[in-house]
């Protein structure tokens, strides 16, 4: 009797262990796209029998939670999502599994991804480590109702001698910022908090002035006319045309100012576009549209790119099940379903999908944004560069450093980091 | 004689035996991490190459001291600690003295006072960030009702540090009050009665009886609060991220970034060791001073 009982327990334990072995555990950030994936996961479990456990945490906790798991020979995450900040670090440390063999074996088509997405969160030095998940390229939210207003059009024409309309160039946009700062309204709201909100937002100003972070051989190119103009314009926007306190705003506070109808424009992550039409969060529903950040000329954009990629860590306890999940979640069908819920695609075939375009008219604007966007330097020390850039820009905005002085410091520290990483000889 | 020695030795052995589990636990959770950090601080240990292959000696310490931002954070933290500890002490002592003479509803006052202290610093930071939003927050709204111009609480390099100090006081002053009040209520009544008979007024009784008798309690309270204040990290992380500029870049947040953004655990450990030794020196000094009082 006792033997039978023990045998039964052992069998039950064995079976449950077998069932538990087919669980894919993924650490994810609490953002809208994660929520969309969560709603679709039951379909994957139904198709494959593999359970999915999404551990959702705040961005600030992700890196510190991931690293110990990645360093271990056997970690607890089957798959992970990687911010483009971490790509250099994770690949340099050898924590990610190359995916090329699996991609070839299953004939998974990666050519459908926007090339810039593959550069950012797909391939590193020719090896595919990730499948792009969602993009958070920055765009410009602007008040289309204010642009359409007849009085504004007349006043603008008489002040600047040009027509008021969707800005085609960066200079045209800056004039609008000045123009709309009147009657308790602000021309712009900025996210000046250290380190990433300010560093990311300022990058758009830099690209819009025709700047790039470095030459092909990684020599920093910040302390030049484009860089200095970008810092001056940013400082003026924060201190003169923006609401009080925007030097310490994170994106949520800046978004609230825009959503309360107190600013004409806000350069931010494209996933905020859906939120601005949510009546529970916004008092300007239907009055705001998104566009790529205008560049120095009408044919060039100034948007900063940003994205997350799916990857399988070398410490993954079940890489095969993880790959099955990645294939499913990044299939056209699943990616489209996510986009239909409001997610940010990375695949061209989802951007061009008629159903997606029918539901979200701004879909093509988002696609153009990606096509004309610029990448932030991706190397082992990207987070450190963001830190240095954030600190120096914040000092410049506070008037404690001159733009050229701040940019010179960034160049010195970026040179050191690029040398340490072997990018700059 | 021999027998008593043997008993004493046996007692000592038994004492060690009984203390062994606690000592082992203390070693595992306190001494081991400290030694590990010290060991790491003399190696080139980063999260990208997490190994002890390269012994660097004092290089991490030299690098830390030569970093202007580190020195700036250290100075800023000293100012912050001096500010919050002094203001909280004065405020806390005044409230504790007032509460000490209260006879009724004491538990209610305690309850109200303890509320902020029970809150997580992250929540305190988030709440105050909302309250202090320059255009949408309630604080500037109330000021505008009173005809005061809106204040740039967190966006100005001159004001931000005072905002953090103010929020920290709001959060932590109850700690001072509770500890000082406990000390006050334990004071003997006789010296006061004797002083009254001798014709001493309230102020003289405070200066010549309360303060000297409270000396050790005040020292302990200041010491504990000081150590906690040096570690302030959460408020800055939530409210300013060290900005604007570098106006609130406190040492704990700086060390955190060296470890988890720059991934340089070796240098971060060296910085922690420098900070630890400074705190130890200060604690040692205050402890000795406290002993002279008793």
Any guess at the CATH architecture of chain B?
Orthogonal Bundle
The unreliable regions of chain A are 10-20
Strand order of the largest sheet of chain A: 2-1-3-10-6
State the CATH topology of the largest domain in chain A: D-Maltodextrin-Binding Protein, domain 2
The DSSP helix count of chain A reads: 20
Would you write up a description of this structure?
The complex is a heterodimer of chains A (425) and B (294). Chain A folds into two domains: 183 residues, D-Maltodextrin-Binding Protein, domain 2 (3-Layer(aba) Sandwich); 208 residues, D-Maltodextrin-Binding Protein, domain 2, CATH 3.40.190. Chain A is 50% helix and 12% strand. In chain A, the strands form three sheets. In chain A, strands 2-1-3-10-6 form a five-stranded mixed beta sheet, sandwiched between helices. In chain A, strands 8-7-9 form a three-stranded antiparallel beta sheet. Chain A has a two-stranded antiparallel sheet with strand order 4-5. Chain A contains 20 helices and ten strands. In chain A, helix 10 packs across helix 19 and helix 19 packs antiparallel against helix 20. With 425 residues, chain A is an alpha+beta fold. Chain A is globular and about 65 Å long. Chain B is flat and about 70 Å long. The mean pLDDT of chain B is 91. With 294 residues, chain B is an all-alpha fold. In chain B, helix 1 crosses helix 12 and helix 2 crosses helix 12. Chain B has a single domain, classed as MetI-like (MetI-like fold, Orthogonal Bundle).
Topology:
The complex is a heterodimer of chains A (425) and B (294).
Chain A: H1 2-21, E1 23-29, H2 32-48, E2 51-57, H3 59-71, E3 79-83, H4 87-92, H5 100-105, H6 115-121, E4 123-124, E5 127-128, E6 130-135, E7 138-143, H7 144-148, H8 150-160, H9 170-180, H10 196-208, H11 225-241, H12 251-259, E8 265-269, H13 272-276, E9 288-292, E10 307-311, H14 319-329, H15 332-340, H16 348-351, H17 354-359, H18 363-371, H19 382-397, H20 403-420
Parallel strand pairs in A: 1-2, 1-3
Antiparallel strand pairs in A: 3-10, 4-5, 6-10, 7-8, 7-9
Chain B: H1 2-41, H2 59-66, H3 68-100, H4 106-118, H5 121-131, H6 138-145, H7 160-185, H8 190-197, H9 202-230, H10 234-239, H11 251-260, H12 265-293
Helix pairs in contact in B: 1-12, 2-12, 3-7, 3-9, 4-7, 7-9, 9-12, 11-12
